[in-house]
Amino acid sequence: MQDGPALAVEDLWQVFGADAASVFKSVHAERASASATAEALKAKGLIPAVRGVSFDVAPGELFVVMGLSGSGKSTLIRSISRLVEPTSGRILLEGEDILAANTRRMTELRRSTIGMVFQHFGLFPHMTVIDNVAFPLKVGGMSRAERHAKARPILEMVGLTGRDDAYPRELSGGQRQRVGIARSLAGDCSVWFLDEPFSALDPLIRRQLQDEFLDIRKRLNTTIVFITHDIAEALKLADRIAIMRDGEIVQIGTPAEIVLKPVDDYVRDFARDVARGRHAKVGSVMRADTGGIGPDDPGLTPEMTLEDALASCMTLYEPVPVRDASGTLLGVVHPGDLAAALQADSA
Amino acid sequence: MTEATAPERSALPLTPGLTAALLTLLVGALCLLLQPYAPWLIAYPAGWTLPATEWVGGGLETILNTIKPTVRWFSWAISFPMSWANWVLAGAPWALVIGTITAIGWHLGGWRMALLGLVGFGFVLLSGYWRESMNTLSLVVVSVPLAMLLGGAIGLLANEVPRLRNPLQVALDAMQTVPTFAYLTPLLLLFGFGPVVGLVASAIYAAPPMARNVMLGLERVEPEVKEAGIMSGATRLQQLMLVEIPAAGRQIMVGVNQCLMAALSMVIIAAVIGGFDDIGWEVLLTMRKAQFGQALLAGLVIVTFAIVIDRMSARLALERERFDPRVSWALFGVGVATAAVLALTGTATPPDGIFAGAADAVDQTLGTFTAANGTALDAIKNGAMFYGLLPLRIGLDEAVLPFTWGFQWTQSMSLWLFAAGALAAMAATLTGRAMTGVHVLIGVGILETGVANLPWPFVLVAAAALAWSSVGPRFAVVTVLLLGTILVSGLWERALLSLYLSGSAVAACALVGGALGLLAAVSKPAWAILRPLCDMLQTIPLFVFLIPVLMFFQIGEFSAFLAICAYAIVPMIRYTREGLVTTPPEMLEAATASGATRAQIMWDVRLPYAAPTVLLGLNQTILYAFAMLVIAALIGTTGLGQSIYLALGQADVGLGVSAGAAMAILAFIADRLVQGFAEDRRRVLGLS
What we know:
In chain A, 38% of the residues lie in helices and 20% in strands. By secondary structure, chain A is α/β, with parallel strands linked by helices.
């Protein structure tokens, strides 16, 4: 993969309404901030669904966009995949400006580079499981035998063997989404969009599929943009999380940053219900200086969750060392800080 | 119906609806008062009309003559597949045809459908009308693919070019609301006598349902399925062919079913042109000769056709079970073998009808029955005419005569009537229902005057007022303009007659159908009886409704009224029941938990909730009534339907098309009005 981000989104706007593009252009030119532009657009009866969003996703990164319904996250992913035509902005996919791509190039990209999974699966009701999965290959002109041969191992990977000839209506929700995932992978995509893929599933199935998803991800090492409204899911899966509200990104950060250093009350509210001890790591509260270490060494590492760390220092009152796997001293943590990080603004 | 806004209990709140109603009342009263001094208020003077029908006729004839060569070429081209289909169907041994139908039946729906095919076509064979039936069928076989192509193309076009969507919708509405007979006339001029007219007419008539279902089906494909097609890298053509059309398959198959039924119905109606020895012609012929037994038999053949085609093609839209194809082939083989044996033994010609005797017997019995019960039947007919239809048509002041009612209507009776109406209106207003009061007064006025004698300014204002409160000011303007067109084109009188007949039929359907729907909603056994009846009535081609009413009541307005009612009542029953039984269970539970009795639940919960659906049923009933009105012209109605039918006989394009357009205008306005009210109710209930 080349240097630089796999996906770069710069000042992306998605405005709905009559004559949105030209109104946006005139309004945006006169105003400095995104919120001022948005207000002016709303005053003219337009709907700014995505408002000047920018972010980079590194190759192989799992980037989660989290927001409540109506926050514009679904519109955002539809703009990025050009299912709806963005009003303004730039989208660089592996360095290529895809808003400049013509229809043919876009079709090509969707066959080879981009894969997408939908909330309600979007399976073709009139096709069998294997035909659904092989569909991207079929439209790409691959012969029937060849594409079925290619689809079978993918079905196996998502844990769906022996149902090749079933129709979507004969499958459970979890099985349907496995088909959806398999189909999005059939084209060997390097950038993978998932639009709330597990939201329509029961909690147990959801957790199971999340785990399998992480497995698949490890094996394929694709770049992923993952949309969800579930903070727990975001924290569990993400390398980095972008929190959206009213079409704008409020904060981008690692799960620990989101939990421990929310930028405002909106983000803090999300994190409130989360058992932060399970998501924040020791590394986020560790001090780099090594002074004042007490006599005890409970064996903390930076990757340990706060919860686990606190459990092993329950009876300690003096700073303890944090070491990496090889035993090198990296810093210190005061057990009081661990407890305080968990307590902070949970009142 | 006009209570668009919730009535408030203050002194006399002038809501827009009430203002409109009062204005209507005022105009009506003024017209009545001024009537002796200005007779032109009632009868629109002939001198004020424009020769619109001649203009339309002249213009159309010019256009038609210009495109005639092209069209004749098309007619020539289409005559080949038609003669082939005819040759195949009429030439093929009957055993082969029945075997094939049975095999198709098995393929579509297993033994039930196979049996339906066998029994149905067996009956057709034994009726003695095999040749005529096959002629009809060959017309359907050629017109349906044409209609499907045309409809499918329109549907796809509307789907692909959103800007064309609205104009195409309007065109489809027009194709369906312009009465069937009306476009037979220009087609006759274009194609000349012969079966091609019926073919083209049925293709035009059957295309809209196909187009609508294609549009609806494509629109209803889940957005994520469409998006998945795009994100899989399919080109637009691939998306359509591989994803959207197959995913919309069921809805499109519903379209195929409706398309088949419409084509069959139209092919049979087109028989009035004559020139083709088909089953519709047979019905007409026997009806004209008053051989009702035979007419009934031929009618039953049509009904059989309709049922077989409908039930089999309806299977297309269901989730398909797979039936063993070997059985299909075996059934087909049996047909071939039987045909071969019959051919070898020299008995291949279809047998003479075995029901001819039965038909004669029915005819005789019927003759005896009508002779014996003539007085009773006449009493029914006259009673309905003198005490129901006639007063509605020409008003109490003219309909109440010593000869029928036993006394003469006098001026003072009119005054008493108005006084009673005014008292009732006053009482209603004082109890906070001013709207009802005004409606009562307007109703009394109409009853006194009669629909056919209504002053035209009153009709215009009333229609505008309704349009205003149901849809909005713009539609009120449109309504006045459209009705004005009818007025100045000299078709006004006939339009009022049509309005009166369809209006009284709709009113009767609303009352009886509403009551039956209510009954069906509360009683399962009642619905078990009504449901197959409704299915049956909806499958029967319009034409066939004329036979039984003619048998008992001869030619005349009452027969037409009955035929219209029989056809138009079905949607009223269906929608009323549908609206009532689909009340959300939680609402019923909440009402029960609040201590409401069954009657209270029905009155206060289910009926208000069902109102929008019932209104849609009324809307359908109105459209059905207009459709049937034209057909009923065959057995004696006055008004636009009759004009259209006469125009067909005289090949008068101007009159035919103008009268057809006037009819379409009435249907269009009625449709939008009722839909507007239904939409309003839905909004109030938060359903839209």
